[in-house]
Amino acid sequence: ALEKIRHPVTALYWELASIEVGGELQTEDRIDLPFEELINDRFVIRMPDECVEELKRYKDLGVDHVVVRM
Length: 70
Prior knowledge:
Layout: H1 2-18, H2 35-39, H3 48-60
């Protein structure tokens, strides 16, 4: 799954960074990052049972809405 999204996600976020979307963000929130850093804590891309566990972690942090794309 990660390899399927590597190019489109990287291209999108680098394009956004090139027009300075997020230019004023703190280092941990920047979008002009290598793919592995970019997806960390931004995407839940795993096997279904692993996604459930990851989403439980967000729920425990108080998150009550997520955006799902398939």
